[in-house]
Design a protein that fits this description.
The protein is α+β, with helices and mostly antiparallel strands. Helices cover 31% and strands 37% of the residues. Among the domains are: 1-37; 44-81, no CATH class; 89-99 and 340-425, conserved putative lor/sdh protein from methanococcus maripaludis s2 fold; 148-223, Helix hairpin bin (Helix Hairpins), CATH 1.10.287.470. The protein has helices at 2-37, 39-46, 61-73, 76-79, 149-185, 190-222; strands at residues 88-94, 97-118, 124-129, 136-137, 142-146, 225-227, 232-234, 244-245, 252-267, 279-284, 287-303, 309-317, 328-345, 350-352, 355-361, 367-368, 374-377, 379-383, 387-388, 392-395, 404-410, 418-425. The strands form three sheets. Strands 1, 14, 15, 16, 17, 18, 21 and 22 form an eight-stranded mixed β-sheet that branches. The chain has a six-stranded antiparallel beta barrel with strand order 2-9-12-11-10-13. Helix 2 runs antiparallel to helix 3 (61-73) and helix 5 runs antiparallel to helix 6 (190-222).
Length: 429
């Protein structure tokens, strides 16, 4: 047992010296590292200037002793100030008040306000056409006529028939007057007088029938020509002189163009953006630099199956008749307009549910560094977005004019981080 206790004491003694020596080596390494990192501080502590102008050697005199004491008490964190991370390199968008418009581009075709098919009400052979395709027509102008001979003959026949019926009626009237006198004298029976009265009534009805036939023939005579009921422009001719035409055939089309409609198609995803009364600008290739003002007037209730588009009509005043039916047109429908609005790129907004956050550099934090770059502080702010498009959004709260919003960053966003602006973009709307 005694030998066992002796071995334990010897082992504890050896372990104590191993720990002691290791601790001394650890302290020595820390001291050497401090002297290596701060040579200037160590040199100043060892070579302090004497009053006579000579440096004191290590351990030489009272001055050398006092210079060693402070050096041993200093720490690395006391000698070096904490360093701020380098600024993040960012590209930004400058926010400024602009007159913002959101337009929906669409394409379509110009059509007349009314398109009147030109048809004769009677059958016949066309003997005269007084218009050329695209010619402007005034109200009351005669456009085309058919050969009136057949209708004239019918009118003459009806007129002669009327005259004959009128003569018969006059004869029946005279006979009635004679028989009335005879009856009053008692020379004839009442039944004979009543027979003559019935003949006279029949003659009068024949006159009215003949008159109606004559009026009908006269009316048909007036239908041998087509006259313009409105001012407009002529469309394509669909019949020629010498051609037999019936009331079912169309000779042409009259387009009313003092007011025109532009029919455009709107894709299904944009249907909810279109409202009656919205303003629009219409452009045609014939007048490339002239925008024509229009208004959304009609929205069709059905989406076309093949194209999946909704047809709408834009009404445009056309007093100079510059817009002609059939012209290909491009239109911009005004969906949203705000004066002095703050607009930012949608890619710089970070949605969280119905809330948007944005990396903002306030104008008051901007400074110019020695390299000529602007620097500032980044702030992650909650902003209010009343309207947005696929590219830009309107901000009503959370930013002000001349602030910057970050579009690109080299690193990770961090609130209150220092940033350096290496590129600036300004939107034009």
């Amino acid at each position: 047992m005694n030998s066992r206790k002796m071995y334990l004491l010897i082992g504890a003694f050896i372990l104590f010296w191993i720990v002691f020596i290791s601790w001394g080596m650890f302290k020595t390494n820390i001291k050497l590292a401090q002297e290596k990192l701060l040579p200037q501080f160590n040199k100043g502590a060892k070579e302090e200037i004497k009053p006579g102008g000579q440096p004191a050697g290590p351990g030489g005199g009272e001055q050398g002793k006092t210079s060693e004491a402070p050096r041993e008490g200093k720490k690395l964190t006391d000698l070096m100030p904490p360093e701020e991370p380098p600024p993040l390199m960012v590209r930004v968008f400058k926010v400024k008040p602009v007159n913002f418009q959101d337009n929906l581009p669409v394409m379509g075709t110009v059509k007349g306000k009314t398109e009147i098919p030109l048809k004769f009400e009677v059958s016949g052979v066309i003997n005269k056409i007084n218009f050329r395709e695209g010619e402007k027509i005034k109200k009351g102008d005669v456009i085309a006529c058919i050969d009136p001979k057949d209708v004239q003959l019918k009118y003459v026949y009806a007129k002669n028939k009327f005259n004959s019926a009128q003569a018969s009626a006059n004869s029946a009237k005279k006979r009635l007057e004679v028989f009335q006198k005879l009856y009053d004298a008692g020379a004839i029976l009442k039944t004979k007088l009543e027979e003559i009265e019935l003949e006279y009534e029949a003659a009068k009805y024949q006159v009215e029938t003949a008159r109606s036939e004559m009026d009908l023939a006269e009316n048909e005579l007036g239908k041998t020509c087509i006259a313009a009921t409105k001012e407009g422009v002529m469309g394509p001719r669909e019949a020629e002189e010498g051609q037999f035409i019936t009331p079912q055939d169309k000779a042409g089309t009259l387009f009313e163009i003092k007011e025109v409609f532009v029919e455009v198609g709107v894709v299904e995803r944009d249907i909810d953006k279109i409202k009656i009364g919205q303003k629009a600008k219409v452009f045609v290739d014939a007048f490339q630099n002239i925008p024509f003002d229009g208004t959304v007037a009609y929205i069709f209730p059905v989406v076309e199956g093949k194209s999946r588009t909704l047809t709408i009509k834009i009404k445009v005043d056309n007093p100079e008749s510059q817009l002609l039916p059939g012209m290909f047109s491009r239109a911009e429908i005004l969906l949203h307009e705000v004066q002095n609005a703050l607009i930012v790129p949608m890619t710089s907004l970070y949605p969280t549910g119905n809330i948007y956050r944005a990396p903002v550099i306030p104008a008051e934090t901007l400074r110019t560094d020695e390299d000529g770059f602007q620097t500032g502080r980044l702030e992650m702010r909650t902003v209010t977005v009343p309207y947005k498009t696929s590219d830009y959004a309107q901000v009503s709260e959370g930013m002000k004019a001349n602030d910057y919003i970050v579009t690109e960053v080299q690193g990770e966003f961090k609130d209150k981080a220092k940033v350096k602006i290496v590129g600036t973009e300004e939107g034009s709307f």
